Fold this protein.
Amino acid sequence: MKLTQIQLLQEKQPLIHNITNQVVMNFTANGLYAIGASPVMAHAKEEVEEMAQIADAVVLNIGTLTQDQVDAMILAGKSANKAGVPVVLDPVGVGATTFRTSSALRILDEVDVTIIRGNAGEVANLAGMEVKVKGVDVTGDLQNENLATLAAKKFNTNIAITGEVDVVTNGLSRYRITNGHPLLTKVTGTGCLLSAVIGAFLAVEKDVLTAATTAISYYGVAAEEAAQQSNLPGSFQINFLDQLNHLNMEAFERKSRISMGTFGSEHF
Ligand SMILES: Nc1ncnc2c1ncn2[C@@H]1O[C@H](COP(=O)(O)OP(=O)(O)OP(=O)(O)O)[C@@H](O)[C@H]1O
Ligand SMILES: Cc1ncsc1CCO
Ligand SMILES: [Mg+2]
């Protein structure tokens, strides 16, 4: 099952249209190539509608947003919606400034977003809870399962909250993924790339929760494998890209940790 999605991805080489931030553009393109997808960054209002139409997934990331870029994201998102192309929103830094928060909310208002992927602070602020966000990083501990469920219901969409433990939910079914490695927090854009990788899995798997949980687990196991070869951020980043490309499938099957919880239960 998991194997099939990755093989499908490598066979299909889906086109992933990213409107993303200036920090992570190169890393995101390399990471998408590594998993077998085909990245394109296209930001201009003049072309985003056309690009979104031919894409297999659209990823909207507000990391270094400008008003023009938010307008372009809405054009791209609407065009993707018309063409039945899945849309991922990465609400980078929501809660840090009012511009980020209001822009993300405007995108959610105007675009039918397939899944939101962010850290706990970003999702909490998006859902209207005032949690402190330090730039693009979360501070403190949050109850991610309950927060994800609340946000999924509020925005009537799927939510992935990532961190030490990752949670994916549509408001009813909940999954927890416990793969990953702390070195992922020492390389910029690992969350941003994960949002794009979720887009790539959505291009080959229609079930959103399956696509997202598989993508997050695959990504986390790749990080665990990379961390066995390097314990510093620079070499880890390179080894991680290699593992995304060449993850041993037997290791993935053995190390993948996805567990299911149900709505209303306090524990998984
Ligand atoms: N303490 C941790 N231990 C293991 N894995 C982690 C830890 N923190 C984050 N991760 C993993 O790192 C990846 C990125 O998630 P994170 O929540 O850090 O994104 P983010 O805050 O949006 O990052 P960025 O803004 O740098 O793109 C995910 O795969 C997540 O599972
Ligand atoms: C560091 C940083 N600042 C804006 S976007 C970004 C990339 C990771 O979120
Ligand atoms: Mg982020």
